[in-house]
Amino acid sequence: MITLEKEFDFFVKNQKELVEKYKGKYVVIKDDKILGVYSSLSEAVEETSKREKLGTFLVQKCEPTNKVYTQNYHSRVSFELK
Questions:
Q1: Quick check: 65 pLDDT over 90?
Q2: Number of other CB atoms surrounding residue 74 within 10 Å
Q3: 40: closest CA among 30, 32, 48?
Q4: Residue 76 pLDDT greater than 70, yes or no
Q5: Cα of 72 vs its chain's centroid, Å
Q6: Rounded distance between C-alpha atoms, residue 16 and residue 14, angstroms
Q7: C-alpha separations of 14 from 56, 63, 72 in Å
Q8: Coil, strand, or helix at residue 37?
Q9: In percent, how much of the chain has pLDDT > 70?
Q10: In 3-state terms, what secondary structure has residue 18?
Q11: pTM passes above 0.70
């Protein structure tokens, strides 16, 4: 199972510096490296997925608050609980 904990930890550890450089932008992080910086979430995912497998990189908005740590996802998928 792929987790992005390492990438998220990198963001949190470097958040201050990243915000100073890229405030309001979306950074793509993989293996403790910034792969790209984009103006929108959709652009970041679309462009990075051309080179990297989905689920192997983190897209994080650069803001000076921990409120950017939470993301809501909406789906039309339904699950049956047993």
A1: no
A2: 5
A3: 48
A4: no
A5: 13
A6: 6
A7: 19, 12, 23
A8: strand
A9: 82
A10: helix
A11: yes
Tokens representing 71?
């993301």
Residue range 13-37, pLDDT digits in tens: 999 999 999 999 999 999 999 999 9
8 against 78, higher pLDDT:
8
Judge contact between 15 and 68, C-beta under 8 A: no
- Closest by CA to 51, choosing from 28, 25, 21, is 28
Note whether 25 and 37 are within 8 A (CB): yes
Name all contacts of 46-55 with Cβ < 8 Å and 24+ positions apart: 55/2
Strands 33-38 and 58-61: unpaired
Tracing tokens 């990198």 back to the chain, one arrives at 10
DSSP annotation of 39: S
